[in-house]
Design brief:
There is one protein chain. By secondary structure, this protein is mainly alpha-helical. It has a domain of about 30 residues. Helix content is about 40%, strand content about 5%. It contains 2 helices and 2 strands, in the order ααββ. Strands 1-2 form a two-stranded antiparallel sheet. A hairpin with a 5-residue loop joins strand 1 and strand 2. Helix 1 runs antiparallel to helix 2. The longest helix has 26 residues. The radius of gyration is 32 Å and the shape is rod-shaped.
C-alpha cells in the first residue's frame, strides 16, 4: 500500500508541475511556447485558463492529502536510520555513543612519602 500511495504521490507531483508551468502568469509563462498567448492559438486566449486553474486546485488538494497520509503511515520499526550511518533511537535527537566515564586523576606520590635514599 505504501508503494502504491508513493507512486500516486509522484504522479500527482509531476502533473502539478506540468499544469503550473502551462499557466500564463503576468508575463508570458510556458504556455506561450504552446501558443497560449495569442488569438487563434491552440489553447485559446482565455478559455483554457479556467480548466488549468481548476486542475491546479484539484492537484494541489490531492498533493496535500497524499503528503499528510504518507507522513502518518508507520514505516516499520521505531528505529530511524541516519543519513550519516548509525541508528538514531526514536524520540532522541542524538546518536547513541559509548558511555563516557570521567577520567580520575592518577595517584601521585607526595614528597613526604617518597622513599629516601639514605
Amino acid at each position: 500500500m505504501l508503494g502504491v500511495l508513493t507512486g500516486f504521490h509522484v504522479l500527482i507531483c509531476i502533473g502539478l508541475i506540468i499544469v503550473v508551468l502551462l499557466q500564463t502568469g503576468k508575463g508570458s509563462g510556458m504556455a506561450s511556447v504552446f501558443g497560449g498567448g495569442g488569438g487563434g492559438s491552440l489553447m485559446g486566449g482565455k478559455g483554457f485558463g479556467g480548466v488549468l486553474a481548476k486542475a491546479t486546485a484539484g492537484l494541489a488538494v490531492a498533493f496535500m492529502l497524499t503528503s499528510i497520509t504518507l507522513s502518518l503511515i508507520p514505516r516499520g520499526s521505531g528505529q530511524r536510520e541516519s543519513l550519516l550511518g548509525g541508528g538514531v533511537p526514536a524520540g532522541t535527537g542524538a546518536p547513541q555513543t559509548e558511555q563516557q566515564v570521567p577520567a580520575q586523576p592518577e595517584p601521585t606520590e607526595s614528597p613526604a612519602e617518597a622513599p629516601s635514599g639514605e
